[in-house]
Amino acid sequence: MDQRVKGLDLARALAILGMVIVNFKVAMGAEQGNQVLISLAALFEGRASALFVILAGIGISLLTNRLRLSGSSTDQRKARSTIVKRGLLLLFVGLLFTPIWEADILHFYGCYFLIAAWLITRSDQAILWSGAAIVALFPALMLVIDYESNWDWETLRYENLWTVDGMLRHILFNGFHPVIPWSAFLLLGMWLGRLNLNCTRIRAMLLRTSLMIFVATELAFYLLREVIGANIQGLSTDDINFLLSTDIIPPMPQYLISAASSAVFILVLCLHLCDHFTHSRLLYWLRQAGKTALTLYVAHVVVGMGVLEELGMLEGQTIAASLISAGIFFMGGLLFSVLWLKRYRSGPLEWLFRRVAG
């Protein structure tokens, strides 16, 4: 258990780093500069946040496994109540945070938690089938609901967010991390959290399978785009990429499969690293950052982007400037986490979260 938790903290830190890189790039309008760096930054888009959500699902299982397996209806109600309270708090805080950062993930998180609360007593198979159904539901909804409604693609701004219709569409279907289908990542994490991730055989199976699925998915859809683009008339390149890409927008099934498999691969690597480099100072610092992930997530917008705004760096920057800025913020976050956790058991927002929601 100890090494597994260390590995989860490491993976959480890497997820935060990836999200900072992506969000700073977007906020700074960093579309210019070295193409290699632009491609490198693009690797994190939709991948770091997927890992973050999967880790949340694992955390839910670790939190509730004992109560779930006790067989006591009282214990199960207690577990469900805890997850509901955390979900409602995340939804509330995230909606307060959204006017500052429209790409916020916390209010979506809250909705994922509410779904998880309903499913925590279900079997492993039921959780996996529920996730698969959610993944399949998204393209079906695209046939009857306009996915592009309320979007200004030029500025990546979502219009009419604070209307009832706009908010429901945003949260459930076409926001940055909509419940359908993003909650499937959380359900995958819940299933992973029920496995014995300390078992070498299970880790090896997850590592091989995730790598094979990732490579097969990316290769298959690359070939599909090339074949369809060359042989089918009436569809533009943009249309083909929209329907057959493995990018985050829109979150088609191939994106979820690709992002989930890459996230599982990184997660298992983190578990291995924490097994074999138990005294690494670098891994220790990164794990401390993982323990304060919620604090660092909020800080990268409030503090990090706040400083960039004061410096006049939120528009028209190069990719090098955004990566350097992300690196500086993350190094500062590492230092803060190490110093803070020398004195306190958890990060400031983590402590407040547990204080309020249990």
UniProtKB/TrEMBL annotation:
Q: Which residues form the Heparan-alpha-glucosaminide N-acetyltransferase catalytic domain?
A: 4-224
Q: Which UniProt keywords apply?
A: Membrane, Transmembrane, Transmembrane helix
Task: Mark the transmembrane ranges.
Answer: 12-30, 36-63, 83-100, 106-121, 128-147, 167-193, 205-224, 255-274, 319-341
Q: Keyword Transmembrane helix on this protein?
A: yes
Pfam families in UniProt? DUF418, HGSNAT_cat
The residue ranges of the DUF418 domain are: 254-357
Name-wise, this protein is: DUF418 domain-containing protein
Annotated source species: Neptunomonas marina
